[in-house]
Amino acid sequence: MLKAGFVSLGCAKNLVDTEIMLGILADNNITITDDPHAADILIVNTCGFIDSAKEESISTIIQMADFKREGKCRGLIVAGCLGQRYQQELLDELPEVSAIVGTGAWHRIMEAVQAVLAGERLLLIGETDTIYDENMRRITTTPSYSAYVKIAEGCSNCCSYCVIPLVRGKYRSRTIESIVSEVKNLTAQGVKEINLIAQDTTSYGRDRYHTPQLTALLKELVKIDGLLWIRLLYCYPKYFNDELIETIASEPKICKYIDMPLQHADDEILAAMNRRDTRADIEKLLTKIRASIPGVVIRTSFIVGFPGESDAHFETLKQFMLAQKFERVGVFSYSQEEGTPAGALAQQVPDTVKEERYHELMALQCQISEELNRQMEGKELTVLIEGHNSEQPDVAFGRSYREAPDVDGRIFVENAGGLVPGAVVQAEVVQGFTYDLLAEKKPD
């Protein structure tokens, strides 16, 4: 029986594509292996969003190519954003690569496998208008209690620094019925946490229903028995309306956790980024969210070193962070990408300046995070257990509604020996650190 090995890089949206391709391979009697030495076919699902992601993708491809020489691998397939973006160039420059499968052709992965096994080299790009549905088999690679569900594909925002519309196509939503059906299936398999993802979740439904429908979707999802948490990731400010705020506040299953990439806080830079909001708009929305949703955690991301960002622009961003005191912040150095309007701008910021600004904002956020985590001491949280400390079996670790998978810190729970991953317990926070919390399990 043929065996395939898979490496998935990049964001959770890419991971869902990987899981669908795994399902297609399994439906065609191909065994999935995590041992690249044993794989007949190796597939790397790549990211091509920014320079660091491209470098990681190329490095992984080259690493996997070694198994064509040393193992039983008969073909190396490159899938995902890097392949979609660079297509024939990748095939020409990387002779180790047997096939390219772009973001619009993941459903043709078996065609690529068959061609590779026949000794052919193949380029499959296709149209960037495909999206999966609930009828496609999906092999989840996340822990059994948590899963990502992609509610839309592509993006139509066209931020001036971003290549996503080029590699993923325009925004296109799945139907409410399709998403609800998939979540029901996942819940029946034991999933307790659903993380809703898209390039812009708050735009969900605009293309299909002519008006944003995220609230309508959430009102259907909360009816599903067995769900502990529904988490919203990648929310953009423009369509974060009062109805959505009220729904999050009133529905116990919806995490009081909002991931809202803001990217900057200076109006000149926001305009140059082709963002739809001003600083005043953002501040008004944040004030409303915090006033309406008690205990809300807000995660955001910022880009430093965007072309033309002056010391004054950076200071505006810094003061905004100081004033808002976000619970979670990711900081990224601007990556100059060919094919984007921002990439063609003349006022590119030197890498040394980007690095200085990156470290300055991260240091600032460390202080804010530690301050906020210390304020959690004495509070009780519901914790989803994910594992145990190997050296201290009585100490478990997990997350509350306040921590998203993979990107946020952990809660370490004492007196939690014997709890299995997926267990849910009450714990009191005894100490807050920069990123993590120490808590003690409450008596049953």
Structure notes:
This protein has 444 residues and is of the alpha/beta class. Helices cover 35% and strands 22% of the residues. It contains 13 helices and 19 strands. It has helices spanning 12-27, 51-70, 81-93, 109-117, 164-168, 176-188, 206-209, 214-221, 242-250, 267-272, 279-292, 311-324, 351-374, and strands at residues 3-8, 31-33, 41-46, 75-80, 99-101, 122-124, 146-150, 152-153, 172-173, 193-197, 229-232, 254-259, 297-304, 328-333, 380-388, 396-399, 411-414, 424-432, 437-441. The strands form 4 sheets. A 6-stranded parallel sheet has the order 2-1-3-4-5-6, with helices on both faces. Strands 7-10-11-12-13-14 form a 6-stranded parallel sheet. Strands 15-16-17-19-18 form a 5-stranded mixed barrel. α4 (109-117) links the parallel β5 (99-101) and β6. α6 runs parallel beside α8 (214-221) and α12 packs parallel to α13. It is globular and about 60 Å long. 44% of the residues are buried.
Brief account:
The protein has 444 residues and is of the alpha/beta class. It has helices at 12-27, 51-70, 81-93, 109-117, 164-168, 176-188, 206-209, 214-221, 242-250, 267-272, 279-292, 311-324, 351-374, and strands at 3-8, 31-33, 41-46, 75-80, 99-101, 122-124, 146-150, 152-153, 172-173, 193-197, 229-232, 254-259, 297-304, 328-333, 380-388, 396-399, 411-414, 424-432, 437-441.
Uncertain residue ranges = none
Strand proportion? 15-25%
Helix content: 25-40%
Helix/sheet category: alpha/beta
What's the tally of helices? 13
Shape summary:
globular
Strands side by side in the biggest sheet:
2-1-3-4-5-6
What is the count of β-strands?
19
Cα-atom radius of gyration: 22 Å
